[in-house]
Amino acid sequence: xxxxxxxxxxxxxxxxxxxxxxxxxxxxxxxxxxxxxxxxxxxxxxxxxxxxxxxxxxxxxxxxxxxxxxxxxxxxxxxxxxxxxxxxxxxxxxxxxxxxxxxxxxxxxxxxxxxxxxxxxxxxxxxxxxxxxxxxxxxxxxxxxxxxxxxxxxxxxxxxxxxxxxxxxxxxxxxxxxxxxxxxxxxxxxxxxxxxxxxxxxxxxxxxxxxxxxxxxxxxxxxxxxxxxxxxxxxxxxxxxxxxxxxxxxxxxxxxxxxxxxxxxxxxxxxxxxxxxxxxxxxxxxxxxxxxxxxxxxxxxxxxxxxxxxxxxxxxxxxxxxxxxxxxxxxxxxxxxxxxxxxxxxxxxxxxxxx
Amino acid sequence: xxxxxxxxxxxxxxxxxxxxxxxxxxxxxxxxxxxxxxxxxxxxxxxxxxxxxxxxxxxxxxxxxxxxxxxxxxxxxxxxxxxxxxxxxxxxxxxxxxxxxxxxxxxxxxxxxxxxxxxxxxxxxxxxxxxxxxxxxxxxxxxxxxxxxxxxxxxxxxxxxxxxxxxxxxxxxxxxxxxxxxxxxxxxxxxxxxxxxxxxxxxxxxxxxxxxxxxxxxxxxxxxxxxxxxxxxxxxxxxxxxxxxxxxxxxxxxxxxxxxxxxxxxxxxxxxxxxxxxxxxxxxxxxxxxxxxxxxxxxxxxxxxxxxxxxxxxxxxxxxxxxxxxxxxxxxxxxxxxxxxxxxxxxxxxxxxxx
Lengths: 355, 355
Known about the structure:
The structure is a homodimer. The first copy, chain A, has 10 helices and 12 strands. In chain A, 33% of the residues lie in helices and 21% in strands. Chain A folds into 2 domains: 3-175 and 267-353, Rossmann fold (3-Layer(aba) Sandwich); 177-266, Rna Polymerase Sigma Factor, Chain: A, CATH 1.10.1740. In chain A, helix 1 crosses helix 2 (147-158) and helix 3 (177-194) packs antiparallel against helix 4. In chain A, helix 8 (292-301) links the parallel strand 10 and strand 11. At the A-B interface, helix 3, helix 4, helix 5, strand 9 and helix 7 of A face helix 3, helix 4, helix 5, strand 9 and helix 7 of B.
């Protein structure tokens, strides 16, 4: 694959000079234009936008979140806005740019300019292009959450020589058929809105439906009370919250990007037997989108050494965003303890309850 | 309340003369026009449509299902179409019109002519009007499933002198806040369709969303495989099934009726402490719409004697329609064993696993 690269902004200051700002570390954004062979849609010229934080000499860790996440994982001096995983990124945190060079990118398709079927395997290949552009031969780890975990597994299967360790949080080797049905109906909501050129209305409904899959009945029972009659209609207690979720999402998301990335989740299909790098599998017992049985199946079938950590969380699939201390502990453990090769490929899986 | 009544059709033959037809029993349909004080929408003149099957001398059992059910519970000589609970109704079945006089009605609002907030308590009062019209003073039992169970509890709280026993299957004293959120989004799908004068499209989506709440991930995992790429789009394996569910539902359901009955579920609120008739609570462990914790809470708080039966089912909330043998056993037990008053109102609940 050919590529052209452009650096948007670079800072190489290393002194920590500003009051409460994070210790200054080099951070850079850039983009690379590559010709990428998509699995279902032919070869396309695409622009990949990345962000890197940490010295080039440090071991590199690729970080990827859900389909709504982006290249800005955590704030830095150069890019001071809060990142989507702010609680885990920064000096003294689990993903510390003074110890690792953190790399992330905007998902292929996330800018809404690619109206094509996008396979999670395509994302893995795109990430390999980003690493080429950055001259990173090998990742110390690929930390992925949700869709990012799916792509991490694809990367491990397709670019085995380029990474030492996968940390797959709340994502598995397949999309569960029930979760796929749930997402298909979200896409239908967007399509229904599009029929009347009101895509944002449809996208808001899709997001609200997605929220129900990310969270748990237990959380809603704690937060929300009984329905009320308002102006001749029944309004349930969660509707204000759901309105907020919908409005916030439509303000920053292209309906086409949502459609294509939502579809992409449903194409996830990696044979775990093709993965022979060490894998840390993090599963949440209350996750209604990625049933824990799928995570355990993944862990049992991968060929590399495996560690399974099971969390309990009222927040279900969103635990990776909400259970800050438990996720920090998982990440610290995963990045500081080398997984030993298993005695045999069929040795029992050690399941650890996370702190 | 005043009422006028009209009998649509009556048969009083008692001989079983036709090959495999059910033993002939009297069956009749009728309607009664009443003035009904709605809890949230003032007094309205409404038409209530009922069906009765079984001799007038037999003890009466009122039968009610989900919001999509109607007065035709099971087939008879007079009304030969299959009813919505055909497996449970008929000679030799759990609900046997040779042993009980079975009464059912079309939900208030189900014909789409009542554009008002309908409380489950209104349904209970409407049922009392139907019983008045039929000169039924007292029910041997009120067997309700899903929304029908909610209404049965309302009937017990509001018309205590008119029934001996409630059988509440997969329905509780409150709507769970998470399930309410799920239904609110279904109503938003109908509203989104209505904005573009395509209510049936919106209603189909709402029904498909409802189906996901009625069933379980475990069933989908057994039935459906991986997604496929079809004509440049991802199509998940459950979409054919969901299309079928949507089309079937929109062919027979008024969008307004769906909106108002769906809302009604979310208004369910009965203090269990106000119920002092015997109650059989039937809960399904896999039910994602009516969490078993709510059913157990109900059983612990009612003042009358209580029996709890817990089923396991791959079909979740739809178990009352799908687990024919287990539900038949539950009904046979409930209708043939008198519940003894508890020693105290706080005695421990005996939980029985159903066959």
